[in-house]
Design brief:
Elements lengths: L14 H13 L10 H11 L6 E6 L4 E7 L2 E8 L3 H12 L3 H11 L5 H4 L4 H32 L5 E5 L8 H9 L3 E3 L3
Helix pairs in contact: 3-4
């Protein structure tokens, strides 16, 4: 008997969503031979990466953020958060009564997160913005803590690092903010 293991990565999608996606290929006369998923791409990265685990890759995207837990060079779980760029855009636009396009520009050029010690060293206006951003990111921070606890229980080992990627990961001081508020060393993913 063979002791070989087989591992699979499975991504599920609603049939009506896939049909719509596939129909766009049909209409454009461009039918791919292979379709893959983001999870598959991150799995390929995990298998060939020199990064030591366990670790989390947090892809801070535009409409959603995705968490990929890696253990033993394998993506072992994924999670989804709706704290992402569009939420930040909406909060900035509503708070400062500016348009969404203006909020996007402001986010890309001026957004930041502050640690507790930094709050005492900034103006009241800067502190107000930092508290607004803290409020936006708090649900994600709590989600990550919960997801990490589940990982720690399942694998009997906590995360060593969190690596950030995606456009929203460019917010100033985000790595330091996550390190302080999650308690796990966080840095930008360098590929």
């Amino acid at each position: 008997p063979s002791n070989k293991n087989t591992q699979t990565i499975t991504s599920l999608v609603r049939k009506e969503e896939f049909d719509s996606f596939y129909q766009e290929f049909v209409e454009s006369n461009f039918l791919p031979h292979i379709l893959t998923s983001e999870v598959s791409a991150y799995q390929s990265f995990a298998q060939t990466s020199p990064l030591e685990g366990p670790y989390l890759i947090l892809d801070l995207g535009h409409s959603t953020s995705k968490a990929y837990f890696v253990h033993g060079h394998q993506v072992v779980s994924t999670h989804l958060s709706y704290v992402a760029g569009t939420v930040i855009d909406q909060v900035i636009a509503e708070t400062y009564q500016i348009s969404i396009p203006e909020a996007i520009i402001y986010k890309h050029q001026n957004s930041y997160l502050l640690n507790e010690k930094q709050m005492d060293k900034v103006s009241d206006e800067q502190k107000d913005f930092a508290l607004l951003m803290k409020q936006v990111f708090e649900p994600m921070i709590q989600d990550i803590k919960r997801w990490e606890m589940g990982h720690r229980i399942s694998y009997n080992e906590g995360l060593k690092n969190i690596y950030l990627t995606g456009g929203t990961a460019n917010i100033k001081n985000i790595s330091n903010y996550f390190t302080e508020n999650i308690g796990i060393k966080t840095s930008q993913l360098k590929t």
